[in-house]
């Protein structure tokens, strides 16, 4: 679909926020899905827009969707989102806040609220007084063009990004099937996927902040603060080996009331990235795929770190009433316990996602990406091995001990089966041997230990073969011990510090705030007649 000549001007720009779908209105969408294909609701000017007739399209997350089974109206919504994403410049939609909310004070369950910020490209058409179609100026914004249509592009955008994180076993080369609800058929129940992952863990992956159930604002999350510092480091040309010690003062000195730090461009960029989700998305999109801030393998490694920290936090709170109350206030108890069973499931999914990215990608990975994938897998295995203790009570050892659940009592191929496609990464042999020593001390299935030894042997063989090939011309054979391959030590995943995110100043947090969506004038008129438009005045949460 091509954009009209006025689209570029529109991007200069109007800004709007949109409330996110809840479980309740997802059910309402299902009841309306059949009516969304009614020909009487089609806009008379659809022929003005050139449409790409391909049935398989790629949404902003990179996932491919087959949209042949949805109505023409829904296809138009999806294609409009694609056409906007293809224009160079700041991303059109960014996610700035999410939270767990209660449907009512009397109960009724919880729902997830997502606050999006949008820079809206609008095409205003003005015709002569005798124009048969545009004698009255008309705006082609989503509210005017797709009023009361489901799904809207915001829902499509949001579920595309949720699917990228939640569908851990999806083959990147296969297509997802778009539904009239705006999410892929494979996602099935989005609410359940978010609940199983836990909203705050998902929020890290979606680069947004999270508010407590009782508040509509939030400080920048620890994940966003870390990411902002890593983005600044990438722009400054700081190498990965220096990343952990680079400008640690940025986090402690951040103040939302003083974003411009005169004489310190790095601190200014850091502050602006935290203050603007749109700017953060834009800068992130310009980075190299190998930069740590956008490295998908490092991201999954950090997710595993977050999951382990959540398990440890849950474990330590069980005998501390004050900690339990604090977790309830933060909404951490609403979705279920963050137990060994939950952590084991989520960490397995991280490993599966890494394996999929390595083995099922559309093109071979670069050397640096393969090294990053191996580093993430070895780090996850090391962290799990170091969790050989009872985190909480349970009927069986698997119920209470993460190591025994994932490694000690079972051979499911955890980690080593994924590393089997990365045997060229022999720089991690020493770390794997260290893990083997722990396996011998803690106990593991004989088959698991044998497979780990086989993996290390193949890594050594790969190193020896590579050394022989590189030195054959000189008539000498170099042994594995003098291969010259750097032996890097991957630090064990450590529990992140419990300190609060940086203070945001006296005027309050810099993140977004859940808002009451503005009711379109047309909806207000319908509401005055008792129509459904009167619902538009509710809180956007």
Helix-strand layout with pairing:
Layout (H helix, E strand, L loop, with lengths): L6 H4 L3 E6 L3 H11 L22 E3 L5 E3 L5 H14 L7 E10 L7 E11 L3 E2 L12 E2 L2 H4 L7 H14 L9 E2 L12 H8 L1 H8 L2 E3 L10 H14 L13 H5 L11 H11 L1 H10 L9 H22 L3 H10 L9 H20 L7 H19 L11 H4 L1 H7 L7 H4 L9 H14 L3 H26 L49 H8 L13
Helix pairs in contact: 5-6, 8-10, 10-11, 12-14, 12-15, 14-15, 15-19, 19-20
Protein name: SWIM-type domain-containing protein
GO molecular function, one term: zinc ion binding
Organism: Lasiosphaeria miniovina
What can you tell me about this protein's structure?
- GO terms for molecular function: zinc ion binding.
- This is SWIM-type domain-containing protein.
- Keywords: Metal-binding, Zinc, Zinc-finger.
- This protein has 541 residues and is an alpha/beta fold.
- It folds into 2 domains: 191 residues, no CATH class; 258 residues, no CATH class.
- The protein is 44% helix and 8% strand.
- It contains 21 helices and 9 strands.
- The strands form 3 sheets. Strands 1-5-4-9 form a 4-stranded mixed sheet.
- β2 and β3 form a beta hairpin.
- α12 runs parallel beside α15 and α15 runs parallel beside α19.
- The protein is globular and about 85 Å long.
- The N terminus and C terminus are likely disordered.
């Amino acid at each position: 679909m091509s954009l009209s000549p006025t689209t570029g001007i529109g991007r200069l720009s109007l800004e709007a926020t949109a409330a996110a779908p809840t479980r309740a209105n997802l059910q309402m969408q299902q009841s309306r899905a059949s009516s969304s294909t009614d020909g009487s609701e089609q806009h008379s000017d659809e022929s003005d827009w050139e449409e790409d007739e391909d049935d398989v399209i790629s949404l902003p997350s990179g996932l491919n969707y087959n949209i042949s089974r949805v109505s023409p109206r829904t296809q138009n919504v999806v294609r409009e989102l694609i056409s906007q994403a293809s224009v160079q410049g700041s991303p059109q939609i960014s996610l700035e806040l999410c939270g767990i909310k209660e449907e009512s004070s009397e109960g009724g369950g919880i729902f997830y609220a997502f606050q999006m910020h949008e820079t809206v490209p609008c095409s205003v058409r003005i015709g002569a007084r005798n124009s048969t179609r545009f004698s009255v100026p008309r705006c082609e914004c989503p509210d005017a063009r797709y009023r009361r249509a489901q799904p809207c592009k915001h829902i499509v955008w949001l579920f595309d990004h949720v699917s990228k994180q939640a569908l851990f076993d999806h083959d990147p080369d296969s297509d997802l099937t778009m539904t009239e609800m705006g999410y892929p058929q494979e996602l099935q129940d989005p609410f359940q996927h978010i609940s199983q992952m836990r909203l705050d863990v998902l929020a890290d992956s979606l680069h947004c902040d999270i508010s407590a159930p009782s508040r509509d604002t939030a400080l920048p999350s620890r994940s966003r603060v870390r990411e902002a510092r890593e983005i600044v480091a990438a722009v400054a040309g700081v190498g990965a080996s220096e990343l952990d010690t680079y400008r640690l003062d940025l986090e402690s000195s951040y103040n939302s009331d003083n974003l411009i730090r005169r004489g310190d461009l790095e601190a200014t960029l850091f502050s602006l990235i935290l203050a603007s989700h749109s700017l953060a998305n834009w800068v992130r999109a310009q980075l190299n795929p190998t930069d740590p801030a956008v490295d998908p393998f490092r991201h999954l490694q950090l997710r595993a770190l977050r999951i382990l920290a959540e398990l440890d936090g849950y474990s330590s709170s069980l005998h501390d009433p004050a900690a339990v109350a604090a977790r309830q206030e933060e909404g951490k108890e609403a979705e279920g316990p963050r137990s060994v069973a939950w952590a084991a499931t989520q960490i397995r999914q991280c490993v599966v996602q890494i394996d999929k990215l390595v083995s099922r990608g559309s093109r071979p990975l670069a050397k640096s990406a393969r090294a990053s994938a191996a580093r993430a897998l070895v780090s996850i295995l090391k962290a799990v091995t170091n969790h050989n203790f009872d985190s909480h009570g349970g009927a069986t050892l698997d119920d209470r001990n993460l190591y025994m659940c994932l490694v000690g009592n079972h051979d499911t191929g955890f980690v080593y089966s994924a590393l089997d496609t990365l045997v060229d990464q022999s720089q991690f042999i020493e770390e794997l041997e260290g893990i083997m020593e722990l396996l011998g001390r803690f106990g593991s299935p004989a088959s698991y230990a044998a497979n780990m030894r086989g993996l290390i042997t193949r890594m050594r063989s790969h190193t020896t073969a590579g050394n022989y090939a590189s030195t054959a011309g000189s008539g000498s054979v170099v042994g594995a011990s003098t291969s010259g391959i750097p032996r890097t030590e991957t630090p064990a995943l450590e529990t992140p510090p419990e300190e609060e995110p940086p203070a945001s100043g006296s005027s309050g947090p810099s993140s977004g705030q859940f808002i009451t969506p503005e009711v379109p004038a047309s909806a207000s008129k319908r509401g005055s007649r008792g129509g459904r438009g009167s619902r538009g005045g509710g809180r956007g949460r």
